[in-house]
Amino acid sequence: MLQPTSSNGAVVLDQPGTPLVRLQSTPKKAAAVLFDEQYEVLKHLGNGSYSQVKQVTHRSQGGTFAAKLVEKQVLSKTDRVALSQEVLILSRMDHPNVMRLHEVLEDESKCIMIIECLDGGDLFDRVTQKGKLADAEAQGVMAALVEAVFYCHSHCILHRDIKPENILMSSAGIKLCDFGFAKQLNSVHERATDSCGTPGYAAPEVLNGRSYGFEVDVFSLGVVL
I need a surface site. Which of 8, 68, 192, 214 has the fewest CB within 10 A? Predict the structure, then answer.
């Protein structure tokens, strides 16, 4: 993790239940300007609907990261809430099988998430290019995913979009990523009702907006298997 520093607008928190990473709100300097000052872009990795992903290195501390640059102006109110929820959830996560968020630079127009850069692609591409996994490898992938999901559930977090595209494979291990549909519950007894997820992997009650809990992530794990 990047070493916390007292830069402009930085908030550094490490108590349990609070963000473990540096969240920078940038009222005096644009997030894009801070990003250019602190990071050097190595190459472009891809585009999302409202974002770009670039491989970067920190100019003073080194290391290779992925930077997800989100244009907030084009997001709907619902999408902005989901983005804020994703940032908050990831900032509190600390598990070897969950993608690590290192830093966030944010202002009114942009949200720039600095995340770990992984070298192995996702499970969907792996299966598409090389066919099904050998039994031993599949067991290892599922064991890592069960650990990641158990960690999320123990912190009252529903992922709600477990699928091969959101499972990253690398020399650092198996990583669950993309918490864009994740939801923080107030207790293990709370139920969700909002509809989201990916058809084909999401449990029927998630797609239909019926009451559901942690069991829907277990359903998605079963589909992946």
Answer: 8
Among candidate residues 60, 63, 44, the one with its CA nearest the CA of residue 52: 44
| Dist. CA 225–CA 217, nearest whole Å | 12
Is this prediction's pTM over 0.85?
Answer: no
In a domain, 93, yes or no: yes
161 in catalytic set: yes
Q: Would you give per-residue pLDDT tens digits along the chain (225 residues)? A: 343 332 333 333 233 355 555 565 555 679 999 999 999 999 998 887 788 999 999 999 999 999 999 999 999 998 998 899 999 999 999 999 999 999 999 999 999 999 999 888 899 999 999 898 999 999 999 999 999 999 999 999 999 999 999 999 988 899 999 999 999 999 999 999 999 999 999 999 998 889 999 999 999 999 999
68 is in an annotated binding site: yes
Same domain, 101 and 156: no
* Residue of 94, 125, 135, 161 marked catalytic: 161
Residue 107: give the domain boundaries. 22-116
Contacts of 49 (CB under 8 A, 6+ apart): none
